[in-house]
Specification:
little secondary structure, 256 residues, elongated
Length: 256
């Protein structure tokens, strides 16, 4: 009858769970052949469980399927296929050799939207890749605009850590023009620090011979840095000085 108990073989409506039945409302864990059948059971109809080789709609995951809605981690050949699978269509997974749109990362691609860390030759190419076009990644020898950092560049907007010879060049690079970086041997105005300079506004920590010379360098003129053997005015500290304006912590023999 109706509302029958659990764990009992029933054959009517409202039958319990965990019972071998053959009608509607059949329980779980039982080989069923009708609608609403349980999970983890070899089924061949709608609403079938997980962990079962199915051939219809709504089939479980981790199962070799050949239709729509198939699970992940399965070799598929249709739409909505899972990840980590060699696919040849749209929406294919990541980490897979693809040759079409939406291809994954870390894969040799030759089209648009290709992943990172991959030798690309088109727009939107990834980082850390030898590129020759616009928007190229970092850490790559580039020859065009917007080139990455830490790359030998010869044009505008070049990165850091690179010997540059033009405007806006990075830091830690031998520069000879305006706005040159720090820690670079420069010979012009506004030169960086820690660089041998010979003009106005020169950096600190550089062997210089003129005004504004940096620190940490043996200087012989005005404004020279600290911690350097100096012999003139404005010489740094911790240096044996013999002239005016010499710094502190230095054996001085003159005024200042």
């Amino acid at each position: 009858m109706r509302v029958k108990c659990e764990r009992v073989g029933l054959e009517e409506r409202g039958e319990c769970v965990r019972v071998s039945s053959e009608e509607r409302g059949t329980c779980e864990g039982v080989s069923l052949q009708e609608r609403g059948k349980c999970e983890r059971v070899g089924l061949e109809e709608r609403g079938k469980c997980e962990g079962v080789s199915l051939e219809e709609r709504g089939k479980c995951e981790r199962v070799g399927l050949e239709e729509r809605g198939k699970c992940e981690r399965v070799g598929l050949e249709e739409r909505g296929k899972c990840e980590r699978v060699s696919l040849e269509e749209r929406g294919k997974c990541e980490r897979v050799g693809l040759e079409e749109r939406g291809k994954c990362e870390r894969v040799g691609l030759e089209e648009r939207g290709k992943c990172e860390r991959v030798g690309l030759e088109e727009r939107g190419k990834c980082e850390r890749v030898g590129l020759e076009e616009r928007g190229k990644c970092e850490r790559v020898s580039l020859e065009e605009r917007g080139k990455c950092e830490r790359v030998g560049l010869e044009e505008r907007g070049k990165c850091e850590g690179v010997s540059l010879e033009e405007r806006g060049k990075c830091e830690r690079v031998g520069l000879e023009e305006r706005g040159k970086c720090e820690r670079v041997g420069s010979e012009m105005r506004v030169k960086c620090e820690r660089v041998g300079l010979e003009e106005r506004g020169e950096c600190v920590r550089v062997s210089s011979e003129e005004r504004g010379t940096c620190e940490g360098v043996s200087l012989q003129e005005r404004g020279k840095c600290e911690r350097v053997g100096l012999e003139e005015r404005g010489k740094c500290e911790r240096v044996s000085l013999e002239e005016r304006g010499k710094y502190r912590r230095v054996s001085l023999e003159e005024r200042g």
